[in-house]
Amino acid sequence: MQRVTIAQVAERAGVSTATVSRVLSGRGQFSAAVERKVRRAADDLGYQVNVIARSLRNSRTDTVGMVVPSITNPFFTSLVESVEHALGKEGKELFLCDARSDPRIEARRLASLAARNVDGIIVSPSHGVDSRPAVQQTAEQLPLVQLDRFVDGTTTDWVGVDDVAAMRQVMDHLHDGGARSAAYIGSLMTHSSTEQRFAGFRRRAEELNIEVKPHEVLLGDYSVEWGEEAVARLIAEGGLPDALVCADDLIALGATRACRAHGFSVPRQVQVTGYDDIEFSRLAEPALTTVHQPRDRIAAEAVRLLAAASLAKDAERGPHAHIALVPTLVVRDSTRAAPAPQHRI
Amino acid sequence: MQRVTIAQVAERAGVSTATVSRVLSGRGQFSAAVERKVRRAADDLGYQVNVIARSLRNSRTDTVGMVVPSITNPFFTSLVESVEHALGKEGKELFLCDARSDPRIEARRLASLAARNVDGIIVSPSHGVDSRPAVQQTAEQLPLVQLDRFVDGTTTDWVGVDDVAAMRQVMDHLHDGGARSAAYIGSLMTHSSTEQRFAGFRRRAEELNIEVKPHEVLLGDYSVEWGEEAVARLIAEGGLPDALVCADDLIALGATRACRAHGFSVPRQVQVTGYDDIEFSRLAEPALTTVHQPRDRIAAEAVRLLAAASLAKDAERGPHAHIALVPTLVVRDSTRAAPAPQHRI
DNA sequence: AGTTCAACTGTAATCGATTGCGTAAAGGTG
DNA sequence: CACCTTTACGCAATCGATTACAGTTGAACT
Questions:
Q1: What residues make up the domain containing B41?
Q2: N vs C: which end of chain B shows fewer Cβ within 10 Å?
Q3: Which of A72, A104, A105, A138 to mutate to test the interface with B (most CBs of B within 10 A)?
Q4: What is the domain count for chain B?
């Protein structure tokens, strides 16, 4: 397997390995006659470069590592897809790692990627605090950009969305729909995303005079189950507010389900919003109003930053970029469009 | 980056690089004193092996490539997750590639993985026919196992489920629920999975005397949109049968949606079944009756086969294994449990 | 004709870890 | 004490491609 080497091609073509390398990589100069012989020999033998050997020599692997908290979360899945496509255009390959939302596993993955000499790493950190040592240390070794989430106290590039701006849109929309009280169903505050979103939620709620119903924040994880549980808890503890603002679509889907299971109509009695615009938010009953993240843009920016960082090398690691793209609100059926509470099918 | 080499450790410890290698890999023999010095030096310097260099020498990369038709299909996503976990236990890493359901892209990906000297490849082929040359050729170079789908005329290991047995369960269940006619909504027959499922569907339908409604098979792709379109077409062409048997959950979700949009009640008027048991099949309205694939088992078997194949080397590439696991039917609300058509909420 | 220079091509070092072979010292045996 | 094993470790080759450097050739120029 992987048997034919450059030396064999060289022998068959009657030239040196250096020449073969030059012809095949197009660097340096060579006569047309030699080029023909070499290409002929390479084709005959079915030569393919040994990427490993080349990497060792060039200390470049044309490989990027990506670490996400969970591959099964559709949001990350589509982010992975976008990154994969963006990398494809650059002729790079993707090493995918699932950290299973565990900073320790994440740390191992990061170390392992670094040991594999990837050209760069894209990571969506599992934890806003505990992920820090590994992320920071890895970032000191090679180009690293954080995606979506950000670890406090790290100095790396970051690409994500402006959560505060997004929440402003969400709250304005809910307010238009008549909401005068709202609850935020988030995940643990240890994710920068939920924290930012909550901050945006709270600020705009205050400005719009929307009552934040349970004062204590609801903390769980990014899952359907947690959405269901949170709603059950709210109902048990005194009823639902006019609106449920969820930190992501999975939670929102669970929340919607629980509302209906408990006999509350969505959006007539309770409005529900999600975040991410995963594919299934469109298919839910009712279709979910949510915040659409420009995933392709995010991925493209991340790849671009990595490429830039690779060029700059350790030379002048300039100031790090924090790119916040503005997401768009996607209004569907889980919220009320008009101020007058009107039911729509 | 990746600066400290084995030579530096050797110098600091006052030994040769050979000794450092032996100590760190635990192969060969060495005195306790030397071991201490070497470990000390390695720790002080923060030494990490250069996996690339090691791979070149060992011609092993501890890396497995996986190619799937689409990362965004939740079924493949969870398959990827399972494989990732199974590999983690073996200390191997996963190279993930998305073929975007295009055999040409798939071929490029396979070639690229082979060039990267992965230890093995797990592929779920995009096309039952067009994927053949690339799959076959790659399989001749290195261990390869096909997952879920199978390319006709290739000789490689395969792990998947017994589609025919699964369809038998589905049809029996639908028959119990009173279905006397049914349509199969599949994807293009160029996927072995849809073909097998259709075969199972047709055979059991015949045995149970269930009328196969439109004689021509409905062909599209594995997507929600296609499910919606197929139902629209059925309605336009003369109405719906008692049951819609879909080749996967995405199609089933789309079909269910379309049924309801056109005013047909599921499962009262039309029963719908899916295949794969993706997470959202549980969340749909009504929750989808579907076939659960034992993903972890599938992944584990695939990884096991690869490991075995790596050991065997080209030596005696014995007969190839075809492992068909038996999936289980998951009955939910999109079908009728009892013969008497009874509505349930 | 003698130089000069550009165009080609080959030699060999290099990337970093691994490992077969060789050897010196330590330990064992009769 | 001579001789044979082990044990412990270093030397140097090796994996395959790339590339700095040097050498060769022939054309162009003075």
A1: 6-49
A2: C
A3: A72
A4: 3
